[in-house]
């Protein structure tokens, strides 16, 4: 059961790796408008399930803390991420924001029944180094003039790691509530869009395809899979393995001609893959350990 849930969590990481490709192909739609549209699309699978099985509507009745955590996690992360990118260079802001997998691994020590081992931290740090090679391929330069953007990026990392860790504490809450989180995030993003941005719609059918792909996968199904994974799977392995997302994203961009291959990608592959395998040491040991013979 735990292995299956962890693999479902891996599916979320795989879907997030398509985020950059779909975003690059989605045209010039401003970020909050894109967020509003994509989260509306992302809520459709959950709404379909509720429509086909109305009895599940009762599962949406949850304490306020569950709703606050979910909405703050999904909307708060994207609001802070967009704010960081508006107020700091994308390389530095992205690197700071991507501290969240390491924060999940370290923070998991505070969860009931979890123990933090040296290989969890080492695996996460290896993934961080691999991410650094990918993100900072053209150099990195932290400038105090961008303090607001850096601060937003750091809050972004704490927001998503905090959401993921708190979600583990709500393991009895059905994943159906993610539908409500997506709808609320869509509405809040729409409010931000109307107040801060100019509306720009996709210009071609291909751009619409990319927007729909975003909504169905990295900004849709991925959140349902992540919710199930962190609640029922191995959150430490998922945290360390999350560093595979920027690596896979870069490989996909390279495959589709949006990026050039380099030695950095090869070395990042070794660091991220090796780190994920190291962090997953317990899972592999449980799988290959022979059963104890009955006396």
What does this structure look like?
This protein is mainly alpha-helical and 295 residues long. It has one domain. Helices cover 73% and strands 0% of the residues. The protein has helices at 2-16, 19-25, 31-42, 44-52, 64-87, 90-97, 100-107, 118-135, 147-169, 177-196, 205-232, 235-241, 244-255, 263-279, 281-288. The radius of gyration is 19 Å and the shape is globular.
Low-confidence stretches are: 291-295
Task: Tell me the number of strands.
Answer: 0
Total of helices = 15
Percent in helix? over 70%
Q: How many domains would you count in the coordinates?
A: 1
Main sheet characteristics: none
H-E string: HHHHHHHHHHHHHHH
Instruction: Decide which structural class fits the backbone.
Output: mainly alpha
Strand proportion, as a percent range, falls in under 5%
Radius of gyration: 19 Å
Mean pLDDT: 86
Protein name: DMT(Drug/metabolite transporter) superfamily permease
Keywords: Membrane, Transmembrane, Transmembrane helix
Give the tags.
0% strand; 15 helices; 295 residues; 73% helix; mainly alpha; disordered C terminus
Topology (elements, then pairings):
Blueprint: H1 2-16, H2 19-25, H3 31-42, H4 44-52, H5 64-87, H6 90-97, H7 100-107, H8 118-135, H9 147-169, H10 177-196, H11 205-232, H12 235-241, H13 244-255, H14 263-279, H15 281-288
Keywords: Membrane, Transmembrane, Transmembrane helix
Protein name: DMT(Drug/metabolite transporter) superfamily permease
Pfam family, one: EamA
């Amino acid at each position: 059961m735990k292995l299956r849930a962890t693999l479902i969590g891996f599916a979320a990481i795989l879907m997030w790796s398509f985020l950059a490709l779909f975003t690059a192909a989605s045209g010039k739609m401003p970020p909050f408008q894109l967020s509003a549209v994509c989260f509306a699309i992302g809520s459709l699978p959950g709404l379909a399930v509720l429509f086909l099985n109305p009895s599940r509507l009762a599962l949406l009745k949850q304490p306020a803390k569950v709703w606050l955590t979910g909405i703050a996690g999904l909307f708060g992360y994207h609001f802070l991420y967009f704010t960081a990118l508006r107020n700091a260079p994308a390389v530095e802001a992205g690197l700071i924001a991507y501290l969240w997998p390491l924060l999940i691994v370290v923070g998991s020590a505070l969860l009931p029944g979890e123990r933090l081992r040296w290989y969890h931290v080492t695996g996460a740090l290896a993934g961080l180094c691999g991410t650094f090679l990918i993100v900072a391929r053209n150099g990195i330069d932290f400038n105090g003039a961008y303090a607001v953007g850096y601060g937003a990026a750091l809050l972004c990392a704490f927001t998503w790691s905090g959401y993921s860790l708190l979600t583990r504490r709500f393991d009895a809450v059905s994943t159906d509530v993610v539908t409500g989180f997506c709808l609320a995030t869509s509405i809040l993003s729409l409010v931000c869009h109307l107040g801060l941005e100019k509306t720009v719609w996709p210009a071609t059918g291909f751009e619409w395809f990319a927007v729909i792909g975003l909504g169905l996968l990295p900004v849709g199904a991925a959140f349902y899979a992540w919710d199930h994974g962190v609640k029922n799977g191995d959150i430490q392995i998922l945290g360390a393995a999350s560093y595979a997302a920027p690596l896979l994203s870069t490989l996909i961009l390279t495959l589709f001609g949006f990026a050039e291959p380099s030695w950095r990608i090869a070395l990042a592959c070794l660091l991220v893959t090796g780190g994920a395998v190291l962090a997953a040491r317990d899972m592999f040991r449980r799988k290959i350990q022979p059963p104890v013979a009955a006396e």
